[in-house]
């Protein structure tokens, strides 16, 4: 029965192409219908491998349906719905089309059962998301979008190289668990890790995401990184390297998040930090850890989407998004403020909010594996997340100093999208069981124990105490209009410097070598031309002597021949004819 | 024009909020004596470990972030020059 249905990815992409031909309410209703139809299909597909096509002797599998791909399919479709609802009133078809194609391509990646399908949707994802960055139509966005697509094309090449090697080694395009062994797997790993923004391949994210429009960043925050996390869970579970990359990611970005002035850049850094938790879970690879990584990705997509929606609302209504320029907005944007606080509480893993029931699975998994250091880093980061995403974002945006801005809450569709996301965050936090039922392995985990709740609250509330004391004492680093250097410095500044250095040194070497070479060649060519002339003259004069030319006649003929050869007026055709006749002569004689 | 909220413009309200906040901290410390503990590691047997760890994590975070700022902070037009 479901064999007749189209894969959700194709539905999204095909439906997106019709969007520009519709107007007003028809367009709005049509766009909202796309994820709804897709969700109905995902809810009704049988498990196994469906939607297979033959392509040049390879089998394309567009439907690898199991618990792992389904849970990501659900959340991406839900997020596509919320994102479309949030952006419903945007009068820019470029954004709508690229966002819907982007969401479709992500679903394509999630349900891909073979590498060719995966790579196809992978590249569609990269290109369509670039348009969401460019949609701001500012110079900064254009440049950031350009860097973004370059980085992703390079990542795509790594993946492609890995895929080609993998197919050559195994003889099949289908993939499942790969694990780090050999060149092919490393290339694939690097390609996927770049999309997951794994440190040190992360700089494209805080560089590009904050450049999107108020609505497009919501899509960006959800799809690329989490589809890569899905692939890592699928292909590299239990890879120890991921634990250390994850621990590093959990730790380092929070310092940047504390320092950043641009609210969306703060959120971008906390996005990195949250992916760190997922990578730690993937790296540990136990059932609890993988469940935790999946659950955390699920919750994270919702609350990070919610936080970017709140930031987008502020940007939309005030035109500003820097801590130094906003503040005191709770007075006129109470709903946005409330939803932002729900998102902040969720990302901080407060009890009764979604982050609490997912993040704690990963943390407990580190305890079960006796990873003391990783455990302490995760706990440090949990307090740190509350500090920058939980307190700083709402505090500096909606409270803090009164900026004098009196912007209102955004339009109904934006408020509704935030409201639905906030509801989902609280619902999952209070009733985690429906989410646990979706996870790939059976869940034998109870988040709400007295010790866990009290321990987590102590960690968070005393972190808040530190914030309060530091703010009151004036020791807290003031918000400054500035940027903070990250790894992208290597290709933005160092790259330019290296180019300049190359220009000065290598090109100078080049020029000198050319000079020497030209002198030698000129001299050589002169020498060889003279040799030819003299050879020709020697042969000709002897010939003419035999023919009986003497004195004046001989001198005249000699002079004409010399001029012809040196000045090149000697018809080239004759030279060729002579050469050919020589060959013919040899051919005849032998 | 819709009416503005002015909840936190009054120092009294802020004071009430802070008092509630400090009280909740006390409640959390006391609550630990009434729950069934299952410490993850030996150091978590110490009462109030999470509270101390959370507090000093944040202080350390701010301290290190201030140091980091000395290295990485540049003017906003750094990349345009």
Number of strands of chain A: 3
> How helix-rich are the residues of chain A, as a percent range?
over 70%
Biggest sheet descriptor of chain B? none
**The number of domains of chain A:** 3
Q: Supply the number of helical segments of chain A.
A: 22
The percentage helix of chain B is 55-70%
Mean pLDDT of chain B: 83
Secondary-structure element order of chain B, N to C: HHE
Radius of gyration of chain B: 21 Å
How would you sum up this structure in a few lines?
Chain A is mainly alpha-helical and 590 residues long. Chain A has helices spanning 8-16, 24-44, 67-86, 93-111, 115-134, 139-170, 182-195, 204-208, 216-235, 240-251, 253-259, 263-284, 287-318, 334-347, 354-368, 372-398, 412-430, 433-438, 450-473, 489-547, 551-567, 572-589; strands at residues 48-55, 58-65, 483-484.
Any key phrases for this structure?
heterodimer; A: 590 residues; mainly alpha; 3 domains; two-stranded antiparallel ribbon; 22 helices; 3 strands; 73% helix; elongated; B: 81 residues; flat
């Amino acid at each position: 029965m479901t064999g007749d249905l189209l894969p959700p990815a194709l539905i999204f992409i095909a439906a997106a192409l019709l969007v520009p031909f519709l107007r007003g309410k028809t367009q709005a209703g049509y766009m909202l219908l796309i994820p709804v139809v897709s969700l109905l299909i995902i809810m009704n597909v049988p498990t196994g491998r469906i939607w297979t096509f033959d392509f040049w002797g390879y089998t394309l599998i567009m439907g690898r349906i199991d618990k792992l791909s389904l849970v990501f399919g659900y959340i991406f479709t839900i997020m596509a719905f919320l994102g479309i609802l949030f952006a419903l009133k945007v009068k820019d078809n470029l954004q709508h089309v690229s966002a819907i194609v982007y969401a479709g391509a992500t679903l394509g990646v999630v349900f891909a059962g073979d590498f060719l399908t995966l790579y196809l949707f992978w590249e569609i994802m990269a290109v369509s998301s670039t348009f969401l960055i460019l949609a701001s139509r500012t110079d900064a966005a254009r440049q950031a979008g350009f860097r973004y697509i370059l980085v992703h094309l390079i990542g795509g090449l790594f993946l492609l190289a890995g895929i080609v090697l993998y197919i050559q080694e195994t003889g099949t395009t289908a993939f499942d668990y790969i694990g780090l062994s050999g060149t092919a797997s490393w290339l694939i790993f690097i390609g996927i890790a770049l999309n997951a923004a794994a440190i040190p391949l992360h700089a494209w994210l805080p560089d590009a995401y904050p450049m999107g429009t108020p609505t497009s960043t919501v899509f960006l925050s959800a799809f690329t990184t989490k589809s890569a996390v899905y692939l890592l869970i699928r292909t590299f579970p239990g890879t120890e390297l991921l634990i250390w990359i994850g621990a590093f990611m959990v730790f380092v970005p929070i310092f940047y998040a504390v320092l950043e002035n641009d609210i969306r850049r703060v959120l971008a850094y906390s996005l990195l930090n949250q992916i760190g938790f997922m990578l730690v879970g993937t790296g540990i690879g136990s059932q609890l850890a993988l469940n935790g990584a999946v659950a955390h990705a699920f919750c994270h997509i919702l609350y990070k989407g919610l936080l970017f929606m709140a930031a987008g609302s502020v940007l939309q209504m005030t035109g500003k998004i820097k801590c130094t320029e906003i503040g005191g907005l709770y007075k006129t944007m109470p709903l946005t403020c409330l939803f932002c606080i729900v998102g902040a509480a969720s990302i901080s893993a407060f009890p009764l909010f979604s982050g609490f029931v997912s993040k704690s699975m990963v943390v407990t998994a580190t305890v079960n594996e006796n990873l003391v250091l990783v455990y302490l880093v995760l706990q440090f980061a949990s307090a740190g997340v509350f500090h920058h995403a939980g307190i700083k974002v709402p505090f500096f945006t909606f409270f803090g100093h009164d900026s004098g801005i009196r912007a209102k809450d955004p339009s109904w569709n934006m408020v509704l999208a935030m409201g639905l996301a906030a509801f989902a965050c609280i619902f999952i936090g209070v009733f985690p069981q429906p989410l646990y039922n979706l996870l790939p392995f059976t869940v034998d985990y109870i988040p709400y124990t007295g010790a866990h709740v009290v321990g987590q609250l102590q960690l968070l509330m005393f972190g808040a105490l530190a914030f309060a004391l530091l703010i009151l004492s004036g020791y807290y680093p003031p918000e400054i209009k500035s940027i903070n250097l990250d790894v992208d410095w290597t290709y933005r500044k160092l790259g330019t410097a290296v180019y300049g250095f190359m220009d000065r040194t290598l090109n100078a070497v080049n020029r000198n070598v050319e000079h020497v070479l030209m002198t030698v060649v000129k001299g050589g060519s002169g020498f060889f031309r003279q040799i030819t002339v003299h050879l020709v003259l020697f042969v000709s004069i002897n010939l003419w002597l035999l023919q009986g030319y003497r004195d004046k006649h001989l001198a005249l003929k000699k002079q004409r021949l010399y001029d012809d050869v040196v000045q090149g007026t000697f018809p080239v055709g004759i030279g060729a004819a002579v050469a050919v006749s020589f060959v013919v002569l040899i051919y005849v004689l032998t | 024009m819709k009416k503005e909220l002015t909840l936190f413009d009054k120092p009294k309200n802020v004071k009430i909020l802070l008092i509630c906040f400090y009280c909740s901290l006390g409640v959390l410390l006391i609550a630990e004596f009434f729950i069934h503990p299952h410490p993850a590691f030996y150091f978590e047997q110490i009462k109030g470990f999470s509270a101390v760890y959370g507090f000093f994590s944040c202080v350390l975070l701010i301290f290190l972030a201030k140091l980091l700022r000395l290295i990485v902070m540049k003017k906003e037009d750094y990349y345009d020059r």
